[in-house]
Amino acid sequence: MSRNHVQSARRPAPAPAAGVLDPGVEAPGGVEPVYLELLARGASAEAYEQPVLLARAENRPPERIVALERAKLLALRVRGELEGRRRREAELSALFETAHDLAGLRDVDAVLQAIVQRARSLLGTDVAYLSLNDPVRGDTYMRVTEGSVAARFQQLRLGMGEGLGGLVAQTARPYVTDDYFKDDRFQHTLTIDAGVRDEGLVAILGVPLMLGPHVIGVLFAADRRARVFEREQIALLGSFAALAAAAIDTANLLTETRSAMAGLERANEIIKDRSAVIERASDVHDRLAELVLRGGQVRDVAAAVSQVLGGTVEFTDTADARSLARSLETSRTEGHAVRHGDDWIAAVAAGGQLLGALVLRGHPGLDPVDQRTLERAATVTSLLLLARRSAAEAEQRVRGELLDDLLDARAREPRQLRDRAARLRADLDATQVVLAARLDGPAADAEEAAAARRRLWSAASHLATTRHGLAAARDGGTVLLLPLGPDETATDLARRTARQLGAAVRQPVTVGASAPVADLASRPDTVAAAYAEGRRCLDALNLLGRGGDGAAAEDFGFLGLLLAGERDVTAFVMRTIGPVVAYDTRRGTELLRTLDAYFACGMSPARTKDELHVHVNTVAQRLERVARLLGDDWQRPARALEIQLALRLQRLGTPPERR
What we know:
This protein has about 650 residues and is of the alpha+beta class. About 55% of the residues lie in helices and about 15% in strands. It has helices at about 5-10, 30-40, 50-55, 60-105, 110-125, 150-155, 165-170, 190-200, 230-295, 300-310, 325-335, 370-410, 415-425, 445-465, 490-505, 525-545, 560-565, 570-585, 590-600, 605-610, 615-630, 635-650, and strands at about 125-135, 140-145, 155-160, 175, 205-210, 215-225, 310-315, 340, 345-350, 355-360, 430-440, 470-475, 475-485, 510-515, 550. A hairpin with a 2-residue loop joins strand 9 (about 345-350) and strand 10 (about 355-360). The protein starts with a helix and ends in a 7-residue tail after the last helix.
């Protein structure tokens, strides 16, 4: 009902004019039934004007029009009373439902959301929202919104005393503005104004959420157009604010109660756990002793302790424990497990040497008994590591001795060589590559250089073990014999080995590789020749300033001949044009002669056919055969240069009568 209608209904009716029926007397034609019907069907306020307008349009008698006007006013008054009662009934129902929700409080967020929804619905506003004070951060934040569409508005955090809500909090009284941006009675800020502008709000009503004398937040109702909030609406929003404050207070009390209950339950659990701790300590002692006796592995120790402590225990070696360095050193020095964030660290050491650490993940609340269990597990781990290291060193020596025998060609019985290699899980009949590895860069002194070489040999031995190869220390560096994988070249193997060894010793390592070799058991002298080739590649890398890299003989071409100390011309020729030489030998063809003439004629097939006295198609066919033998890139400048040099060397090395 509009305010004009309410004011008109409250003004006393004018005295009837002469000759007009008294309001208490039924008008002619029955005036009241028309408006009773409108009241019965809940017609809009505008519909009550229709009978008067219709009577005037039909030129009804003045007394009837006056009667209709009076009946209209009475009907509008009744309608206003009915609407007010329905509205109060809806408000009381909503308040009752909210109080009922509060009585059965399970989720404070759900109750606050229901309060905001009902406030928005009953006040008929576009938006309703609730903000709470944050005493820790000293500001206020948006807790619940309903009808909001702007993300920035929904995420507002405001300083105390800022905006309309700050005014409500300061005065502990409701505050209303019919035009937010024109109201200068509160402190405007860029953050608040930007959020309100994003949401498009104009009229805002705010009421305080009170717990005793303290304001803990503000409940708002807002419209995106100018609006005057009536006193009843302000009172209704205040009632919802009181229920919201009660919901928050109840939730806080429930939280405190649950926390106290949880504390009591925890104390009871601790008492029960103490009796189980002794049993766990005895159990872990038995398990660790059994692991040592049956030759268990480090992962078995970690798994057993994980099960006993109810967490995740991992072994970390010193190379991977750099982020734990300070805690690890403290544990090693003190001889106890120490806390590292939410984890526990127990140093694994033997004879003053740090071997690694046992790390208990995500278990900050470790009691003394469990701490001693972790320390005992670290001691057992160090014993297992020492035993494993001794076995590994023995195997490394055996691998090194076998490779030394191959390099020096001392053992020439193929069956014996194969048996020794098989015991080390190496296959001398497979295609292998000999790699020469050397540390790059000067050492601080002789002692540091010796220690670096020992680290290189240890890393190479470990790599050889995992790759089913052999390794030995020689000539101030390390030599490896590794199998060549499928679809792998000697260059690939050299580069990967340089990376792996460099990462292991934390220092650049240069690796030179031989060409692939095979049948080493029957031809052990091949290993020595391949090692010499690998060393020449190593020297070539150093001369070219490519320390810390890996390469094979195939990467250098004739540059390898120039840079290396010993020049293996035959090997270079065969690597470069060997397939063509073999093809001519088997088939009796003249591919080499054609290649020589082709380059001599400036790589022109037309001039080449004149030189050879053949048809140009014959030249083209021979060159296609060469491409299939040497690869499609044989005419690229670098390859062409190497092929021409190989042709020249091959021609120089061939007796005149065979040219």
